[in-house]
Amino acid sequence: MNTLSPDALHAARQRIAEAVHHTPVMHSRALDAAADARLFFKCENFQQTGAFKARGATNAVFSLSAEQASRGVATHSSGNHGQALARAAAARGIRATVVMPETAPRPKIEAVRGYGADIIFCAPTNAARQTTLDAFVADTRAEFIAPYDDVRVIAGQASCAAELIDDVPDLDAVIAPVGGGGLISGTALTISALAPHIAVHGGEPSAADDAARSLESGQRCGNDAPQTIADGLKASLGAITWPIVRDHVTAITRVSEDEIVTAMRLIWQRMKIIVEPSCAVALAAVLAAPEHFANRRVGVILTGGNVDLDRLPW
Amino acid sequence: MNTLSPDALHAARQRIAEAVHHTPVMHSRALDAAADARLFFKCENFQQTGAFKARGATNAVFSLSAEQASRGVATHSSGNHGQALARAAAARGIRATVVMPETAPRPKIEAVRGYGADIIFCAPTNAARQTTLDAFVADTRAEFIAPYDDVRVIAGQASCAAELIDDVPDLDAVIAPVGGGGLISGTALTISALAPHIAVHGGEPSAADDAARSLESGQRCGNDAPQTIADGLKASLGAITWPIVRDHVTAITRVSEDEIVTAMRLIWQRMKIIVEPSCAVALAAVLAAPEHFANRRVGVILTGGNVDLDRLPW
After folding, report:
1. Does the pLDDT at position B1 exceed 70?
2. Domain boundaries of chain A, sorted by first residue
3. Are A273 and B269 in contact (CB < 8 Å)?
4. Residues in chain A whose beta carbon is closer than 8 A to a beta carbon of chain B?
5. Cα A12-A18-A22 angle, rounded to 5 deg
């Protein structure tokens, strides 16, 4: 699946339209001046569950047959995807189970519980997550909805860029943070189907730069226990998202931890909105790479706002 | 001046329309559920300079004759009014001077400087502010634009409620925080002229409750060196704002410091927007007084978002 037809994109967008927000686009003259560009911030921090993940999870859950749905859904997630799946399952009236690391931020654990999902805690390693989830799925035959490497999820995330290009004419580029690649893949599929003249860019923490290395080498690379404040971007590209990134993404810009915190503070101070560190990576990349963005009209996807207010990075 | 005609309100709104934002109205199902009401948040934290004060200061500066303007403008302010006046003066191309207490939050000092105003620091007492300002005005014949007790300022603040009732039909009540009374007076004048069936409410820190005491006693009271986290609400009603409050405000609800912080965190967490403590007083009052607000459609004016991110109250 390296493309999605306009009809398929439209179908996913319609499927979730009642259950997610068409989020607003915001501007900031101060940030335009800082970037020497015209920036259009797509505010997924205002999305249901506080992050774009609501789109993909809802599309996946709403796509299930009645028989599949009756068995419930399950996933592993340190945060936003878990909340999104929990909420989507509640909206359809089915059971959701989320495998979470014991170290997940408290507000994210509470939010998953608040949507009525069951939580199974595991050790904070990728192996433990997968083993715990596999055992649960084998036992219950629940439908696994992966956080990003799932066509249904990617098609849901694609609706974000579709709204953005509907609302903002004449964009030159769109940029999104890159973790496992669900959002950037959905964005790339939308742009290639509906507005192929727009360049698709990614931003990535230098400490979790698997996508940048993959794009440079032409081979899918992984991250080895990355340490970054951008906790939503530690995952590596998957078997489905990698070829989409390879074929449709112009460049991925690396940013340092300091650049992420600086961008996060700029958004808080200048736009008066709350974004999480992973989210700030897109603006950090715009500021770090004027060769790609200066003097252009850039859609910047602000992915989420789920922050532990008691543990801010400054 | 206990009323303003629809024409006078309209003229002020038109005068500032190009220089300030028509701010958005936001919703939150979580906060609706917490208040058992339907809340419409008027987001002045997204206003120019990060606070509604831009409206009043702009109307005052844009109302000056060319001769008055040539002498420049001056005020005393611990924060948002100073920024607003500095920006309004810059927009008109005239000089602004702001007397600020040495203890003013650093971001507010930097913002005033950023708009190109001159700052004169004084001791952090009302007496020192006034003496310093009086000396400067006597010396330069600059036009004093008071933070709230000024008809031009009040008429500018009135534009906020005018936008709100344009954008949200069938409100039952509007609530604003009360400091010196400029915003609540402007709000009351708009509502009494254009939508007199809507109840006008105020919220006030218990620690600076001069308006509540004034309304209860029928006599204008003052605050004596109030200690509250809501630093924008320490001022007392003025000679102009008091009779407007007396004649048009239904009730003023007192809230504790804890209630202010709780409301502020709720807004940050649930709405993903940044508001300052003074701003959170309106929601705190809605939550504290269900007898006034439960099951009603309530416009909540979020007054500003200028917070020192290094000194959060939790």
Report:
1. no
2. 6-52+150-302, 54-144
3. no
4. 24, 26, 45-46, 50, 107, 265, 268-269, 271-275, 305, 309-310, 312, 314
5. 80
